[in-house]
Write a structure and sequence with these properties.
The chain has 625 residues and is α+β, with helices and mostly antiparallel strands. The protein contains 20 helices and 19 strands. α12 (335-346) links the parallel β11 (325-328) and β12 (351-353). α5 packs antiparallel against α10 (235-254) and α14 packs parallel to α15 (487-499). The longest helix is centred in the middle third of the chain and has 38 residues, at 358-395.
Amino acid sequence: MTSLVDTHPEGEKPGREIIQGYLKTLDSSPGVYRMLDSESRVLYVGKARNLRARVSSYARPTGHSARIARMISLTSSMMFLTTKTETEALLLEQNLIKQLKPKFNVLLRDDKSFPNILVTAAHDYPQIKKHRGAKKEQGSYYGPFASAGAVNRTLNQLQRVFLLRDCSDTMFESRTRPCLQYQIKRCSAPCVGKISPEDYGQTVRDAEKFLTGKTTDIQARLAGEMSAASEAMEFERAAALRDRIKALTQVQTAQGINPKGVTEADICALHMENGQACVQVFFIRANQNWGNRDYYPRVGPDVDAAEALEAFLGQFYDTREPPRQVILSNDIENPDLMAEALSGKLGRRVELVVPKRGEKAELVDGALRNARESLARKMAESATQARLMKGLAEAFDLSSPPQRIEVYDNSHIQGAFAVGAMIVAGSEGFLKNQYRKFNIRGEELTPGDDFGMMKEVLTRRFKRLIKEDPERKEGHWPDLLLIDGGAGQVSAVASIMKEYGVEDIPMVGVAKGVDRDAGKEEFYRVGRPAFALRHNDPVLYFVQRLRDEAHRFAIGTHRAKRSKAVGATPLDDVPGVGAARKRALLAHFGSAKAVARANLSDLKAVEGVSGALAEKIYDYFHERG
């Protein structure tokens, strides 16, 4: 358990004196410390083997880098948590950094989960599919893969070689003839009995061997079966087996990096330049390359590679399962401590390696090359984005280039399935993890009332901002609003902004202009005449990209809502009725309406529906009536 040491701000003293004042309350325990500014915002989170010794280093008058000196000068108070071990302190430190996002820490900003491949186990003919999130479904999981694209490529390869089904159980049960996947030789059509459960089970086992790297055994067995089929003059079967062997060989050739001496590892290579960093991570599983991802942790100009890579590892594996081996491009500050922490998470030994020669060093060199190239592209894109932001400020008479732009759009079909959408862009491009969807709730709205829908969306947005960040300190408030629409939408939004006292936020309406032709956009602002930009102005293209992204997101949200509504039935809301029982009820009665009208004895006659559940279903529909 950790224990909290009481803290007290020390008034207006210089930061070094404030830090000095805490030394008398500290001992040599391991733990985590937080440095806070005058408004109690966390500046920095750090760990220590010996809290008193570490904190005393900040009280020294000299010997600090520019970043640390600046941090010390801003410190108005500190907080401490003691831990039993330094390993526990390391884990707590990284967890707090991810939660609090302190200004002076190295920070990993991308925290997306990775997809896996799932081979289900709750069916006679297992399904193979992509899976992301908690591993709750019964079956075997293989991964992680670096991206959805890497998973899709592998799934396509598995289908070509092993002919496994990827359709849902519902679709499987409803088939009466083979689908297109069977016609193009991507599935063995178990849904209509084209393959026996035993033979299908063998192909599933082969696929799982492939995913664990045992491809030689598969090829040898397939070659034996092909030879036997040929001798028995089963030439069609022999040709099918030949095609599978050929596909498997092509898959192995196309995978690129397939290290012979590395079975399970993540390769993490760091490149730093001009105060920016890129970490390239390659995922090696079953001696196969399962893709790579680049990350851009926030670092300062005086952060060294050892500190940056250690901070990255701690945050990267905070919510992810580490592999047996992590291959690094350079040493970190506390390799033994990090290895102990990762081993504790995995439940078995995790090894950290910085190779100097051999195959592993070659793998690191390749990852480093990718990191250098990725960072160069990122820096070029950032420079372009900065120029566009400056141009946007000049075009719309803003006091400074915006750091956060929010773009709003609506989507509906004659008022039905109406949704609002907000996308966010900043100095580094689109911030997709901050996009928001709004289901239009206003029952008094006239169907298709775009003005009313936009007012509802902005009302809800500003209510939430005022509630969550009234002082505008958390970086969630926009510097510019772009609204899809002309004078009417701008007027509707302006009334909402006035109501909530946020008229100081610049707001511009973007209308298609003459003949709704892209390139002839007109821009509307409150109390000013409409204007246009030059046809070839880069800022115009930038605004078009922003508007098109908002439109794409709104359309996608609308389609998802419509699809869900079209496939929905009243049975979805009945407690205890899941997908399988819903299928059974619909198959028995023909429609949800017939289920609602059924008497209790008929409901009890449905296979898989118990007497108690039949009573629940009957009561649900008749109480509603």
